[in-house]
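Problem: given the chain below (35 residues), write out its structure.
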Amino acid sequence: EGCLECGTCRVVSGGKVVKSWNHPYGEMGVTYMQG
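Solution.
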């Protein structure tokens, strides 16, 4: 929850925290909310 799904965590951790990561399929991605 709260993940922007941009892959920054994988780059910053140097592969130590997140071993592998791929963009989700379909219409899952960055969610914009008003309010």
